[in-house]
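CORE FACILITY INTAKE
Project code: CF-77B
Contact: R.S. (postdoc)
Sample description: multi-component assembly, two entities in total
Requested service: structural model of the whole complex
Turnaround: standard
Below are the sequence entries exactly as provided by the requester. Do not edit them.
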Amino acid sequence: MREVAVIGCGMTKFGELWKKSLRDIFVEAALKAIDDAGVDHIESMYVGSMTPGLFVGQEHIGALMADYLGVAPIPAVRVESACCSGGMALRLGFFEIASGYSDLVLVGGVEKMTDGADVTYALASAADQDYEVYHGITFPGLYAMIAKAHMHHYGTTRKQLAAVSVKNHYNGSFNPNAQFPKEVTIDQVINATLVADPLTVLDSSPVSDGAACAILVSMDLAKKLNKPVIKILGSGAATDALALHTREDITTLKAVKDSAESAYKMAGIKPSDVSFAEVHDCFSIAEICIIEELGFVKKGQGGPFTEKGNTSLEGKIPVNPSGGLKSKGHPVGATGIAQVVEVVEQLKGNAGKRQVKNAKIGLAQNMGGSGASSVTHIFQI
Amino acid sequence: MPSPGYRREMPQRYRLEAAKCKKCGKVSFPPRLVCSGCGSREFDKTKLSDNGKIVTYTTIRVAPAQFTTQVPYSIAIVEVDNGVRITTQVVDCKPEDLEIGKKVKLVFRKLYSEGHTGIICYGYKAILI
């Protein structure tokens, strides 16, 4: 396989973008990425999006986005794996270049969620319709059941869950693209409106509009373009049972573990080599489980590890310096690529007040549903 | 959104029909065409036990459109006596009555009525015993 690099990135602000269409949001991010990379064409495009059909009634967005970006007739396809559609788009673009087929590929993600659809219903379509959703489960409900089990088995506390939101909102307060760039307190998180016990609205990532894009090139081309090069060291993806109840252990996100192990193996590194990570904190409990699966902390110890500040900007392993899904926003299809935008900013040393010191190797982990699909990428400056 | 007819008419919803692998004995609910334990494609019909215990649970406060009239409602992952786990509402009790490990029994109930036409969707729910 050939080496692949990221040479440009761009994203829209995340939030309620009511005056902008799905296509305009995507094209705005794509143009930023193209301009950042300084390239005059792209050879193909992968667009991650979970369910534009349910959110705004638009399918077939590969062709739509190619048309409005002015790059037709290049091949362009939508990639779907629920909330890790963006990360999976990156993986497909990575392999297209690694295989030698293309030299210059745009990978992106977009979602427009805040205006129109029954969001709870649309998101629940990533769970098992016949055997979970039919009985009234929701996504907050699935993660709430993971949280209850984690608290029961490992003694994780309500306060430790809240510490994830507090830390991510603090980081996000320095991110100009964040939907909610403001700090919250432990008490505010715990006493906020309950969504699915024990999770409150401040344990949950928001409903958002937004897009993010990145330009991938072969390492040979990257060198010719004379741009700062971020190398993709590893890519790993995995699946698990769609229905949470089918999994052997409710508190284990096995697909996350499997995707990370594949990525570590390809990169030839171990968890302790990672300088910082952007992870899929769709709910506070998710970040606690993920840092366990990524090997940053022993199984069951994610709560105390977070509470002691190990994942803060100054901590042992900074997690979600961008503010994560919680503060930055979670336009589901865009999230996986927005993580790449942050990793690249951090590795280049351009992250301002949220800059992680000595950022050499960054990890991005993006997952779908209650963890039935996961994709992990490792980057190096 | 209307659900496809097959979803309402699955025999396992009403008779708890499950499949027992002829090779490794693993019980699948719902029945599968390929055993998730050993990959075999040969099954015997069996019935899911209607007794079980709560593995984990929550109370839903924000629901999709078809369930909004029911909030707050409790939902749990229940492990029935032959080892199979399912997601189901736990009814006829208060949210604070649920606990991990508590015993439940599956019963036949209305789940919700659907869309403008009001088609009734039935299935199993759990009650505490």
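Facility notes:
- Chain B has two domains: 13-48, 49-129.
- DSSP finds two helices and eight strands in chain B.
Invoice: internal transfer
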